[in-house]
## 1
Amino acid sequence: MELIKNLQWRYAVKKYSDESVSENKIDQIIEAINLSASSCGIQPYRLMVITNPAIRQKLAEGSFNAQIHASSHLLVFAAFNTITSGYIADYVAMMEEQRNLESGALNALKDTLTPYFSGQTAQQTAIWSSKQAYIGLGTALIAAAELKVDATPMEGFNPELFDEVLGLSEKNLHASVILSLGYRDTDNDYLASLPKVRLPISEFSKKID
Ligand SMILES: Cc1cc2nc3c(=O)[nH]c(=O)nc-3n(C[C@H](O)[C@H](O)[C@H](O)COP(=O)(O)O)c2cc1C
């Protein structure tokens, strides 16, 4: 399977070259993330794709991850703080439209999801949304590897700073996890020549027949 080769090729890059990733490749990665599965299928996160150098310098303040500013693109996975009844109604209406159903055909789904989310605490919803964002992160890593674009997933950033600089709170969002994209600087990244470290499959996985 080509995917295994691509996953062996990828690693979390520490040092990027100055080469930019083409918009076409970025758009394919975005599309792959949008196609990710999400619980209840309601995609409770949004993606910010940032190239602006001044904004990226600000976002990198206080972080040990230079990749926040020193890479081609920065993706911010911003998870929902709450799931409102309005959001569910709009999403279900979109489902009806995309599946050529009559308006109201999916009322039962709407009537199940609405009380489910209104019964959650803000913390529960934020954690649940963030989990869905991480599924998108996984897709992004795979998509980037297939395009031979390098990537670094990162939790080492200041989420409050991101929320403030990107105005996420007023959009009912919070920064969940981030991903830099670009091309490895093979000569200056100490990780570039190191073998990948993984558990033996026999220790990692057990088949129960
Ligand atoms: C959710 C998540 C957060 C991570 N945060 C950082 C980070 O802040 N900085 C960093 O350099 N690498 C970060 N990494 C990269 C991991 O250290 C790396 O994926 C791991 O060591 C496995 O190596 P590989 O991805 O190169 O195969 C993160 C990875 C994940 C999945």
Note: The pocket of flavin mononucleotide is lined by residues 11-12, 14, 65, 152-156, 177, 196 (CB under 6 Å).
## 2
Amino acid sequence: MAYIVVSDVHLGSKVYDLHNRDMFCGFLNWVRGLENKEETIKCGTKDVTIHKPENLVLLGDMLELWDPKDGDRDNVIKDSIIPFSILSDMNCDKIYVIGNHDDSLGELEDDVNNVVLPNGKKFTIYDRHYPEKKADTATGIHIGKKSYFFLHGHQFDKEQAILAWVSDLIGESWNPLGWFQDLFNIFDTKKHWKRNFLIFSLLFLAGGFFWSKFLPPVLQGPLTFPGSLSSAILPVLSGIILLFFIIKRFYELSAALFVLFLGSWLFSNQSGLLAIIWGTVTGYFALGSIPGVVANTQRKFYNMFKATDKTAEQVITDKYYNKDKDTIEADIVVFGHTHFASSYGPNPDTGNRLFINSGCFYGKDKNIDGKMRYANTFIYIDDGGAYIMRWQGQGKIECIEAFPTG
Ligand SMILES: [Mn+2]
């Protein structure tokens, strides 16, 4: 049984350099080719043979849905077409574990569950980790003599804890910045948020100035019901028709009628009508610009707390990882998220588990405090052990670290 694990490709990202996408596609093609030709490479003194994997684990942040290039999610689709075409053609099952930058795909967990591709291979999405939890503990899967557990790793971030807590509470993924990102991807907002923000500010300030002088009488108008019975006939009739439409489930019609009804009532009061128009227009420009402001500042906000470039050791020892809360039952925990292919443990800090980080296909190699943080890394696992490896293009592989178990 062989597994290959990759994470953090961030397809569609702003700082995404096409070089990484090309490296990733080249890598996928190489994995596809393992079917016909196994590859033997040197890991220290040992020769390791890389077999065709039965499973390919995509360990999160494959897509950049939080902060795509120009804030435009179309760029994610553009960057994904080629890699996903190759993926669908590969002769192995695909396991997509959701990360934080692609967490909205978690909603697909029930839909994309053992979906069989034309070549007979399966594609499955796991919202949290692989394998899934059974009862209270999550037991790893056995490959050779060891058990392995796969998760993206943002779960170890202190800063993500509040999001996770609220998500657990309401029973669905909660991500306020994702909500702004959704709003930002409305065409008018995406293209004109700066202009819209200017208009919103002007309307808001002018309106504020105006209503501060006229607010009391304005509120009196729309909030006082018509006094005489005769003037109540029209609203009552409209109400009955409205109720009829709601019962018949003509919701759009009901909504339109309600607006008309409200409008005609307010029409008798000029300032009330003006307030409605002002509120609607100002609201439109607020929605058409504030998500742009948020979407364009969130990167700076996130960079203040980001866990990127942390080694597996830093994740554990900086208390990003809390072993007392850990319910994972596995010898080896494989995670990504920090973009730093590295390992830590087993020792008491790690609950006597080995932690291996799959690194990334993102950016360039970088020397960080004397340690190389490589781009374009992956993990190969088979019965003989686990290996952190580095794709250098053109079929060139280098072994970074080996964890023989056999
Ligand atoms: Mn991540």
Note: Residues 297 and 303 are 10 Å apart (CA to CA).
## 3
Amino acid sequence: MKVSQMVLLAMLTAGCASEQAYDPLQDYEELDSSTLVDAPTARPGSFAPGDRDLVNRGEYLVELLGCGSCHTNGAFEGNPDMSRPLSGSRTGIAYTSPLGVRFPGIVYPGNITPDVETGIGSWSDEQIANAIRAGIGRHGKRRIATMPWQSYSRLSDDDVAAIVSYLRTVEPVRHRVPTEVAPGRRAKEGFVYFGVYRSREQ
Ligand code: HEC
């Protein structure tokens, strides 16, 4: 099948909406997609592709794999808060389509600094590895929505160990991200939506 046009959209909620003639895009603002591929980490620019040191390698991988582009607050808006990198995003990601329903389900990229209460400080290495490679939440029950764990599923054990080692060295930040919002409920915080759309025209 020929894909004639693909458009990547990312939007933020804004303002209030009228109830008549629902235009699915009326509540959204298009973001500059370049802001969405930035992947800020604690120490930007410290790439070390050949480094065998576990922590340095972990930092390199976290930067390469773009963890900060979701897990650092403000990154979606192109304004990452680098005083608190990787401490979670107050802007959520819709995992059901806001184009079809008024109030989509939303998850918030969590705090992955080693803070014990609000981050992953009390998670075991295995729990963190499972979240990254298999998208399994802490208690092993729920699938993590929207995190691109499928892309990370073939990371080697060494690479995952490096990522975990690095995450354990990041400054712990006390920051609890908003609770996820079930579909149909109105979210109190903003959110973005990632989607790929194919034109129906040939
Ligand atoms: C496209 C955005 C995105 C990217 C990129 C991303 N994550 Fe996530 N991640 C999420 C979201 C959203 C959640 C929470 C999902 C949920 O609550 O169901 C999450 C959850 C997690 C969790 C579980 C912690 C928690 O509090 O739920 C860990 C650990 C994690 N991510 C680590 C990483 C690492 C390490 C990387 C880079 C290799 C990464 N993530 C890249 C979006 C992302």
Note: Residues 1-18 have pLDDT under 50 and may be disordered.
## 4
Amino acid sequence: MTRLHGAALELKSVAMRVKILGAGPTGSLLALALAQLGASVRLYDPLTVEELPKRSRAYALTHSSRRLLQSLDLWDPLNSHLTPFTKLQLDDQELNRHTCFEIDDLSIQNQAHGAVGWILDHRPLMELLLERLKNQPTVSLDLGELDKQGLDGHDLVFAADGPASPTREAWGIKTWSHRYQQGCLTAKVLLRGAGPLTAYELFRAEGPLAVLPMGGDVFQVVWSGPLRCCQERAGLHPSHFLDQLAAVLPEGLQPDVLLDHPAAFPLQLSLAHQLQRGRGVLVGESGHRCHPIGGQGLNLCWRDVSTLIKLVRLSNKDTLPVAKLPRLYARSRFLDLVCVGLMTDLTVRMFSSRNLLMLMLRMPLMVLLARLPWMRQVLLKAMTDGPITVVRLLSS
Ligand SMILES: Cc1cc2nc3c(=O)[nH]c(=O)nc-3n(C[C@H](O)[C@H](O)[C@H](O)COP(=O)(O)OP(=O)(O)OC[C@H]3O[C@@H](n4cnc5c(N)ncnc54)[C@H](O)[C@@H]3O)c2cc1C
């Protein structure tokens, strides 16, 4: 029996009633977690059950996400779809400097799981989540439907309706946001010459380029650059696209086949002024968004879910009144969201530049990272367990 199933036994006589707007990876995972804690859940999304898994995207998962999926009994069923990487190679292409994060740079607890991180495709993730949700007797799936943002007799409403969140708008919550000059292109390719179980983050003047292993010779490319360039590249004939990609990859990496239609997206850093209004809660990208550098996005959304699980457990034990949960959630998440937003933003600004000052700052940083294991350990801990764990470690 999992910890969450065990917790469902501590239920109050009247189950919590929640409405979740948005069945993307955040809303669906939250729905499942809350149902396992005994809540009665209504999940709405304008997309149908067939449309939801269709997005062509792969996520880089960190150890904080691994722990959450394990606690929900989802890790083992996903195992055959998870591609582990044991090396994360950082290349500063302007300075021709390299460094590599390896298993030894993880904390002892994380080392036992044998990977720096994992790549997971959107489709198997969504298919498993939707299958589990269909089998939960306390979940009502209203997919292919829209619903109003009000409580309608529910104890809490969660808005997991993504970065453009109509619910956030309807609740009148404003956001701080910064639109990057850079956009981002994603594509799946067959590629030769990569190291075994290696993921790459290449720092280029136009923006970072991530090459993520998806099993065999298949890789997901997350290529940042001026938005107009990304859109033009996305429209290129496959052979021209592969030529352009080959020209920017490090020597030895050779893309052979384009496996899907490249898609270009604008990039934004944003944070809602408040993560709650009354009994309404913003969760996932409806509340915050960051640059995809370092693959932090979904992991950050799922740490929202982990926090909500902790708070709902307290509410189930009558330690926390439901009405106080949204405010406590907003307070608990603030620091993590601000730190990751700043970390990713600073990295993008520093490493997407030919400015002499930036190059002078980067040179010692890359040298020290390559030479000092403790520096790699601190950075990797911040990326994989969240920056707050580093703050706690330093202050203990
Ligand atoms: C190019 C790119 C690459 C990325 N790479 C990575 C990566 O490597 N690793 C990583 O961790 N993250 C990555 N991310 C971020 C990741 O995609 C997001 O963090 C993740 O999709 C957020 O999930 P979400 O469920 O919060 O929002 P979404 O995935 O946007 O889901 C929102 C859902 O809400 C639904 N919806 C919309 N309107 C309504 C409404 N009115 N009512 C109800 N539902 C509604 C939508 O149909 C959708 O299903 C990347 C992002 C981009 C743009």
Note: The domain at 3-54+123-176+270-395 is CATH 3.50.50.60 (FAD/NAD(P)-binding domain).
